[in-house]
Amino acid sequence: MSETPSTSFSMIYPTSSEGQLPSSRHLSVTHPVVAKRISFYKSGDSQFGGVRVVVNPRSFKTFDALLDNLSRKVPLPFGVRNISTPRGRHSITSLEDLEDGESYLCSHGRKVQPVDLDKARRRRRPWHSSLAITAHAHHSPVPAAAPGMLRAPRRLVVFRNGDPKTRRVVVLTKRVTQSFEAFLRHLTEVMQRPVTRLYATDGRKVPSLQAMILSSGAVVAAGREPFKPGNYDIQKYLLPARLPGISHRVHPKGNARSESRKSVNWKVSIITSDLPNAGTSSQIYIILYGQHRSSAPIYLYGTDGARFQDGCEDIFTIQLWNMNSRKQFYIPVQRWLARDQEDGEICREFPVLNKGQPIFPVTIYEVHVATGELWNAGTVANVYMSIYGEKGDTGSRQLFRSKTSFSFLRGQTDTFSLEAVHLGDLYKIVIGHDGLGPGNGWFLEDVVVKDPTTNREYTFFCHRWLDQGEDDGKIVRELYARDYNIISARQKLEFNRKETWAAESWKFMKGNTLQFYNRLTGGFVRLHPNGTVDAVGKKTDKYGLFDVIFNKENICIFQSHKIRHLSLALDNGSVAGMASGGASTKLRVLYQPNRCALLESALVPGHMVIFDHHGKIADESSAGYANLSKEFVVFVKGMFLNSAVILLATSLCQALCIQPDGSCTGVGNQSEKSYWKVHKISSGICMFESVKNAQMYLRIKDGQCDGTGTGDIDCHFKIKKNLENASISLESVKNPGLFVGLQSDGQAKPVIYTKNGSVFFYPQVIKFGREDPTGISATPSKEEEKIRGSKKRQETPPESEARGPLLSSTAKEISETLLSEDEWKVLVLTGNTGTQANVTLWVYGDEGVTGPISLSKDSSEQLFLPRQEDEFQIEIRNIGIIYKIRIGHDGTSEQPEWNLQRIDTFQVEAVSLGKLQKVLLRCEASDKSQYWYCEKVVVRESGTTSESTFTCERWLPFMSQGIIHSEIELFLQEMQINHQPKIQEGANEGDWKVTVITGDLEDAGTTATVSLSVYGETRCSGPIILGSGKHQLFNSNSADIFKINLKDIGEIYKIRIGHDNRGKDPRWYLEEIRLENIDTRELFCLTVDSWIAENENGGDTWKEMPVVRTNKAPLPVVAYEIYVYTGRKPGAETESNVFINLIGTRGDSGNRRLHQSKNNKVKFQRGQVDIFSIEAVSLGKLKKVLISHNGIGPGNGWFLESIVVKSEEEDGNQEVLFPCNRWLDEYQDDGKTERELLAERSFSAAGDTGSVAS
């Protein structure tokens, strides 16, 4: 047995045979030649201004002497035990290692946290004070004082070292506790002898003000001599105050009247067992409990040889006050007090026997300690606890033997057994740790103590840090029991709900667009045009988007993003779509600790939005509770737009951030230092730049995850959205399969995706971004930033933002020249007619807006005169890259008219052309940075008021029908169809205008090449390449117009549109297609409203739509179920991509890839039947199929046995067999990989497909 815990959460260190404490540090005597001036700073604390120390042979003879001196100056609870270099990589172990003029870090353990020394040097040295632990009345908790302030002047008993009879009571005031050195000087005056060291009554060294204030209320003052044990009884002096940590047992009916304090001598006999190794050399103490109070720890030591040897009896004489008894007590023990014996306890309690029976029973309390879920919440420090009841306390006990393998891990509940004499009703605990070891901080959730004697449970709620670097810096806390467990559980749940709401409430700000995902149904809530609501929508469903149009605290109105006049409503317990603004549409958002939201009627509390497992509206009485769900995961649209500023929260109060050394941690505060700026590379791929540390990007490289990226491919991350909890995971684009993850201490590292939460980040938008106005993917490269900045400065405000009346005059040009970082020069060139109105300018950037800026001078009547250029100097701060301006006037004065048109004005001389009909624009571009977006061209003939407008609204160059066009012909606005450009002059016979409308969902655009096939009664047009998304086509929320020729095609009855699934993001949400005959004005509007993507709708990248005519019923869209039978020959399976084309009496389905098997994860295996489904406009009676594969992958040969196609149509079901029994293999049979299979026979719906292929 080598150590004994005391009532002040520390250990009694073993003494030598002379009773002196051995030094815990290695003595190293050095003799510096010259004096060194050195600065010392506190580990991890940039607020500490540091101390300057002169080191020479006279001031410090040993390294330990320097440590002792620094312990009084650097505020560390356990003193300075380690000195290291500024980055914490090398420890200093001798005075010779210190270099003159350098700076070092001080810590109490081996783990050192780097410090921003420049910031620390600018700080003034603070007054170091800690929160005093004051007394608490019995069962009456005292409210906590403000951190850093003493609650009230506190008394401290100071004993003289080795002489317990010499003591003084010192009042701790702010004057005497300015610093530890000042307090020692004050004690020197009070004790009338030099005081250079302080010890606790159990022999622990007290190295700082914090440790002294957190002590048990008494210290031992010493000079340079070591600690001398003695009976330092402080109860006699501090009994009225009853400081925490001092044991006291009081009987409920005891006589509280003060008695005379007589000194009574007691003889204590301790018999050590004769078992082998039963003796000990450790320092032994005893605490006696009486009716009124308990004694202090009484150390049993002597001068006549060794004590506590095997089979020996040791007799001691002790002096007690008012123990109220002179009887002899025999207390049988027969227990080990050793770490490696029995339960490992080195402190035990035994009740006094009365007539052979114990006065109080011995109880084994079951203690459940829950560590919080925050990152780095666990600790490796030694944890101590003392339990207080109406009959006293247990004293300080170390919690060291948990029923789990490792104690105090993040999110873990540890169970300990604590044996003590029964305490009666419990009312508080004191729990803390010694701060030793790396990562010693600890986030304690709560403690539950079970009393088996009364079968009661006591809950002590904490939910705070015990960490010198977090919260208020305390590592010891007093926790008071809740009256009832049910009330305690409710309070804890309510607290967790409030904490979750604080983290999630940003989602419900007015103007946000939301989606509600139901985990039971696996779908999103949808509001249909007819007012019905369900919860089976897909992520891309346009009816599943809701705008927050009203927000007051947690009451909101959710308006349909697609159907503006309807909002979610709860009316008489039923969920429906109702007119926005009514009382029924106001819903209260109630967040659960699992980050799910409940939607409750604000009008009728208790009525919830509930769905059954089919996604239909329900109430709690309509089915079993297990089949109902009222919890929703809430998603916000548009979080990762370019230039957005976000937090990547790792818990409710922590976030991912960059540390000073460039590493990343998930334990950062949710403050500005944890903000990240989003750089959108392409759909679903982004980079994250630290806002606090510009040009530092999150990255994964060489097996490390840090924040030292420079914006290259290592910094590109694919965003994986997790539906179950609204979190995201960041997958490295360069290293697929590796995600940004967190270790238990919160440090970031690359990990493989798991669902244990280490890769989950909860984004919070600080500032929403926007789509890049040029349509070009955002990158951080300086060259492209410069290009984008140049383009944005050239843009003009849209016509909708013009202010004031617009007449015939023209302000021809506004040019901006950069003077300095904030100063800009603005040149305004007025056209033929000026204005005397007050002109204002707004300048818009991707990070803010400046305006209104008044463009005025002293002589305002001389401004904006006809054909005059006016120059102004303005200041623009912190708005980022300029992408547009707005200019206007207030309409005052006699001549307010002023018309601002395009920025660029040119003058062209030519022989009179008569009435203009068209213009030809040409733009040569070698890369995307040179693309040009032209809105319109206005031509005005000099000397006239007439002008001709040619609308373009297109990027140049552009792609159409597979060809890149660098020039375009624009026709006069009055001659154009819907004001859209034409590619060729005039219209030929059979020309049709095709308008392709891409949806307004996020990432709805595609980078693939889109093709169109049109089917007529006479023939099919074949695939017509419309263009590629790489050339600024098919962007989100856009309409692209093409002209195609369908001469002699006959009456159109269906179209097929799709893409080649190539490019970075080929997914495409197609909203509508319009076909208009330019000659006859015949118009077909075909609604699609569907994703065309491999990961949506069965993976088909083609979509067929029938043409609807007023005088003829359209053909139905049929789902064809395809059964593919792979043969049983060796090597019959294939890994290639297989394609099929169904051909019937009404045309063909086109070449479709058999992408997702409905019944097998691995397709086309030997002897296997795979089922696929494709949709096509009814093909009539099937005649043949074309089946092929692309020969890609190992073992690409394939032996196909047969194909069966089933369909259900209005005129009956169809089931057709297409036998094959041949290889599709370059090296087998005839070497063909494509075969045409003819229909052998048809079957009724009851036919057996199994026999067909046999």
Automatic annotation (TrEMBL):
Ranges of Basic and acidic residues composition bias in the record: 781-802
SUPFAM superfamilies recorded: Cytokine (SSF50353), Doublecortin (DC) (SSF89837), Lipase/lipooxygenase domain (PLAT/LH2 domain) (SSF49723)
Protein name: Oxygen-regulated protein 1 isoform X19
Native organism taxonomy: Eukaryota, Metazoa, Chordata, Craniata, Vertebrata
Residue ranges, annotated region (Disordered): 1-24, 772-807
Residue ranges of every copy of the Doublecortin domain listed in the record: 36-118, 154-233
Pfam families recorded: DCX, PLAT
SMART domains, A to Z: DCX, LH2
Signal peptide: none
PLAT domain residues: 363-480, 822-970, 990-1106, 1118-1238
Gene this protein is translated from: RP1
InterPro entries according to UniProt: Doublecortin_dom, Doublecortin_dom_sf, IL1/FGF, Inner_ear_hair_cell_LOXHD, PLAT/LH2_dom, PLAT/LH2_dom_sf
